[in-house]
Amino acid sequence: MQKNSTSIGNRIKNRIRVIILALAPGQASLKAAGTGVFIAALLFFVLSMSNIFLKGVSFGYYLVSVLCYLLIAVAAAWLVGQLVRLVAKTPRNFRTAVALVVLSLLFFFRLNGPYGWILISILILFPALAFGALYAWKTHRGVVWPKKQRIITLVSLAVGVLGIAISLYLFLYPGTPVKPIKDYKILAHLPEPIQAADPSKPGSYTVSFLTYGSGKDKRRKIYGKDAKIKTPSVDASFLLKSWDGLSGKLRTWYFGFDQTALPLNAMVWYPKDLKAPAPLVLVVHGNHLAQDWSEGGYDYLGELLASRGYIVASVDENFLNSSFTDLPGGGLKEENGVRGWMMLKHLELWRKWNQDPTNPFYHLVDMDRIALMGHSRGGEAMSHAALFNTLPSFPDNANEVFNFNFNIKAYVAIAPVDGQYKPAAILAPLKDINYFVIQGTHDMDMQSYGGLSPFKRIEYSPSFNGFKAGLYVHHANHGQFNTSWGKYDGSSPYINRFNMTNLMPVKDQEQIAKVYISAFLDLNLKGDSAYKPLFMDYRYGRQWLPKQIYFNQFESSRTTYIARYEEDLNLQTATRPGVSISSAHLSVWREAQHKLMWGDHISRAAYIGWNREEVDSLVGKYTFTLPDSAGLKLDGRALVFSLAESDESSLHVEKGEKSKAEKKKEKKAAKEDKKDNEKKPVDFTLELTDQQGSHIRFLLSECMPLQPQIKKNLAKYAFLNSNDDAESIPDFFYFDLDVLQKKHPAFVMNKLRSIQLIFDQSKAGVIILDDVGFMD
What we know:
With 776 residues, the protein is of the alpha/beta class. The protein has 17 helices and 27 strands.
């Protein structure tokens, strides 16, 4: 019996050995496979770096850059190959090629997640199969060889060639259009449009253009000999610590200066034949390839605003951007503080020029009407400029004295990052500024609405009169706010995983920027208050805007809040003393941090959920009760709050669990959503009660429906998403109390007793409620 078992075991082993020998390629085939992988890696490497010279850099610089990186990659791959040789007896060129693929993608292109490993697998597997099979077939030409090996070789060749073709197609094709979602807000009752001129239309001024710069720029004549005004350099070494090492030396070689002598360069659009001082607007770009000059990309804004009576300077900070001279891991870090500080150094120039009789802008700049604007990292620079403008010295080194104190009336942040630089190791505190931030759902760089973090950090003094506002725009991306950045929010191969078909046309995105930025500046620098409703509700300016879904965020400094949810952990207390909170028949009731998908802290908020089917059809209620001594004067005010939809379950289950009922409900809801292809907006009733017991009832949707969360569908395939596909973005709701008072004359608004949210319209839902108060 034992002998028979051994015999069977040996036969199985021999059979396995035969199969392995039939499948295993020889050394010659492996060498050919290595050649195929190397060629694929080389072509992929060259293609992925093509954005360097396609965006304004000469072919010579591109070629030098590619060769340098390629030599480094090959050297590193050879080293890894020698290590692999210790454990794998494979041909040297095969080991080197595989290592080149892995290193170039993981190290140079910094790909992580499934996308990087998919690319690595494709670049190794299919070229290896194709070239190995071709070589095997060539070597056996005219020779009789086993049928099994021929079949395996043909199958390998077919799989390799087909895999290369399919992979190339999937890599290059832009993606599949997604069916439009319903804009419930534009389908609801609409407010009367603003009766004012379209802020995106050119004004009456003829636009002139000039540049100012160091006069000795080695790369660009506009800041060299062609600069109209020559400017001094500034020493940023106290703040910029990462201009060092070999990358720093290469950066210095390329630009011709280091961190101790940064130039003050800018493009300027201004009204011709100015007769009186004009408002001044400075704009700064964000991080982008340094050799693809970015500041010219705001020409559409510069020309528009100059025609409307503004002086606009687009500041050159390209030397702070990622450069092809950067070695892996050697780029500048935490440089956003410098970006903001340099904006203030530019303002010092303008303050000086305004008093210099020899300067073309002598007495033509209104230094009491200044605005700063920044995009991406330049958007974060707005926070640092606002902070540094008020400080007597640099917060990390008091020996660096500041003396800015400019009268900056407005700050604009376009798709900003936040926290890349932290003064004194904290997020920049902000106070008493007018602020506007804009972000797109299809931003493939800043995929999270990070600008809401500085928005929420802005605090207002009782004496300050201003506001902060935000706009979240469906189908807008990162780069189309800048004409030189354009459609692609990154370079290949990173950008090739995204679905590019759902972006709005570039002219539409520029139109949105022109409407909102021009209106914001007119409002804050020219006092044109007619545009203020636009920032509360985009529908007031719908006649000027492309048809898209928009979310507005808004907060006036003249708002009295009863609940901001920041004061304590007691769910029954509110922000205003004496106000209490109660609830009934809710499935979800908690206060928690409202965070976006990148963990940006927006603020604490109330999470409120109800499900009438789970709690015996009882109607959920959430109530604010005001004391008799509240003393609120509500004449001429509006009830306001921030509201977002949460995608969490409205069923009451322990965290991490799902009951059978929940699973059943989710399955049913999924079928309904698939059937209707639309998630319906949540609605509920609001009830005001005065001290005499009189009531006013109205629906949330009488202001506007609560638009469901937007699924972005950023990636070509869902599994390629490295982030969540939706965020709970807040929208601003407002109800004019004077209008309500006229409809209900017996109601005593100044003796308001309670505000109640009654969830009687939608069967189930979870909302995120914040910043409940009364606005002038």
